[in-house]
Design brief:
Two copies of one chain form a homodimer. Chain A is of the alpha/beta class. Helix content of chain A is about 35%, strand content about 30%. In chain A, the strands form five sheets. Chain A has an eight-stranded mixed sheet with strand order 3-6-2-1-9-13-14-12, with helices on both faces. Chain A has a six-stranded antiparallel sheet with strand order 16-17-15-18-20-19. Chain A has a two-stranded antiparallel sheet with strand order 4-5. The relative contact order of chain A is 0.11.
């Protein structure tokens, strides 16, 4: 007799499901976990290149990306991979059933292309896993009150997985990707980058926001529902990195946890705005209404009753953001505006930095010594970020990794 | 102001949506019809090769075709084409919205792979078309009470289109394909085959069952709800063939309407069955329970308390049918069974044949004179069908087309 353990959620990324061989490998791993007695929910991304193929198809018809139609189109990518994973499991003799976002009860708001999960109705999933099935859920997608299909935007499948783990009170959410976990810096750039064994939600959040594998949304959800998240490679049996809310047992005494970077940065600057109340509010309200996620914001000190505002967005959003700014330019009474897509973010992250002086100045000094100009600076309690020229970013990461002693001893 | 006319349903087949160019052409036609003032519902098949690609993907993972998973997988093909058609229309400035089978309210039974439509809830479609949108519906698919996705089997998108036309009391259902309409015989085989302008449901039903473009299910539905169906090419402006229930105004005085053939024939013969009550019932109940559609059935006269039963199925169903027969072989007490996939159906169809003697004998004589052996014979009120060797089928079609004077005068 099969003794039922708790619920486990596994998520497989596109690179882990890129072809039939990888799908079968994922099925082997899923089967093993099921044999261990877990009630198992598996969230699938679209196979490697599927989303790009669908985007190319759409582009061949029209350059307009109508959000509602794009969502329905793209959602088929995860449905295809989910059904294939379910079939691969059944071929191995495991009872698996694939579910769309709708069937999995993932209800969202109506913001097509970047929808937020409103609630998860677990009735169907629970009925499947409690009756002995492995539930294979199409990630990245949900549905509205009107039964329209939505997608969750960047990092969507991670968000699906963590949301389901939270709603099902899962023991853990395992995220399988093509890297062995979270590293102190990108191993492609820094030769002696080390894998981190454990990391807090807050640190991971800062790292994720700055280019490391998982999207911050899913980490936020994990933190909110206290779901431990293990990030590891589907191509090895390495234990990966555990993201959780508890006290770190490893890395003790190290102040900086990792160095992150993000090439997906476009800066927009509005020059000579009248320095009066409500200007920033109007600008960012309008950007928010358009679903544009604004990252760093810097406003210079007022000069002569005029001020400059710079902010960064993802490069995909750059044109839309400029358009939005133009549409309120009259109301804002702005002198001119300019977009720059040649920049990059580089950050150091670490809980240990809190209340410890000297980290910011060490970072600025190290970059300055390497003749890397800093365009903007932002900080949080556990992160210091500089916006630098994209051409200098790899050098910057290597220098900071060395400066803060993150390499192998 | 836009004066709203009645509802029109258009269906575009896979060849009419095979690439971006064809999708844009379909959008042009759809736009023109919309400009005429119709409230418009468009049903899309999957793009040309999509379904085959999805089948190959599935085969690369497992040879098993688990029906529920296959349905969910394949349904994405029609979703992709529908969203692309909607986007192509929006790019031309038309208000279009794509709907899945579920969103379009097409509720079915749970027979995956070959589901039957139970009901159509037109609420969402009506709300879209009455508010000025063109509703683009993914064909071939529906959903069960449990929100599982089903597919409608062969001819599924035609069935979706006619069912929607019926439920919406549409003026007409227009089926766009890659041929100019229904012909007196396959123009690829018979050089002087003529296009038929009008044809009754009953005649079309017989022709459709025997290889001509539309699946009989959709014609039956058309007949049931009295939906006029116009079959024409999306690549020309020819008027096509109108299928309806009224009195034919053309073709008057001609007895045979057309010659049809179907290569998709597998014959299964059960030899030396005990000739006792219930044997045939048991056999065909079991085949029906497996969702296998049986076509021609012939039972020979009893000999020595034993009998032979032959029946034909589609070639795709041949293996499954043999398996099913084997599973009841013990109960049936059958001596042996054999499958033959080298046969073909050839039929003459025409309302005029009713009560007119001599057509059957003319047909058999013409085939005999050409040395074409007849394996089985079946007839309906308006059709005579012979099962003949596949190698002889084209010759047979040409001979019958000539025998019954169907060519251009």
């Amino acid at each position: 007799m099969r003794i039922l353990k708790g619920v486990l959620v596994q998520k497989y990324g596109g690179s882990s499901l890129s072809d039939a061989e990888n799908i079968k490998n994922a099925a082997t791993r899923i089967g093993k976990t099921f044999d261990d007695g877990y009630r198992l929910v598996v969230v699938c991304s679209a196979m490697g290149q599927t989303t790009d193929q669908l985007l190319r198809l759409a582009m061949s018809v029209t350059p307009d990306r109508e959000p509602r139609e794009m969502d329905l189109l793209l959602s088929s990518g995860e449905i295809i991979s989910s059904t294939l994973v379910a079939m691969a499991l059944r071929a191995k003799g495991y009872p698996a059933i694939s579910l769309t976002g709708l069937q999995a009860g993932i209800r969202t708001d109506g913001l097509h292309g970047n929808a937020r999960i409103a609630s998860v109705d677990t009735t169907r999933i629970l009925s499947e896993i409690n009756s002995g099935n492995i539930a294979i859920v199409a990630g990245f997608q949900g549905f509205t009150d009107n039964f329209d299909v939505t997608t969750l935007g960047r990092g969507g499948s991670d968000t699906s997985a963590v949301a389901l783990a939270g709603a099902l009170s899962a023991e853990r959410c395992e995220v399988y990707t093509d890297v062995d976990g979270i590293f102190t810096a990108d191993p492609k750039i820094v030769a002696d980058a080390r894998k981190i064994d454990e990391i807090t939600y807050e640190e991971m959040l800062e790292l994720a926001a700055y280019g490391v594998k998982m999207h911050p949304r899913s980490i936020e959800l994990g933190s909110l529902y206290n779901v431990p998240i293990r990030i590891s490679s589907s191509f090895s049996d390495q234990i990966g990195t555990l993201v959780h809310g508890g006290i770190r047992t490893m890395e003790f005494g190290i102040k900086v946890t990792g160095v992150a970077y993000d090439r997906n940065v476009a800066k927009i600057t509005l020059r000579r705005l009248p320095d009066r109340p409500g200007v920033a509010a109007l600008l960012f309200e309008r950007l928010s209404a358009e679903g544009i996620s604004v990252d760093t914001i810097v406003q210079n000190a007022s000069l002569d009753r005029y001020t400059d505002i710079s902010f960064t967005v993802g490069r995909d959003d750059s044109d839309k953001a400029m358009e939005t700014v133009r549409s309120v330019a009259g109301e804002l009474d702005v002198y001119d505006m300019v977009a720059d897509s040649t920049l990059c973010k580089i950050s150091i992250v670490g809980s240990g930095m809190l209340n410890a002086p000297g980290y910011a100045s060490s970072m600025f000094r190290a970059l300055a010594d390497a003749d890397i100009n800093i365009d903007m600076i932002t900080t949080s309690e556990i992160r210091i970020t500089c916006i630098v020229p994209e051409l200098k970013v790899e050098e910057g990461v290597r220098i900071l990794h060395k400066t803060f002693g993150l390499g192998n001893p």
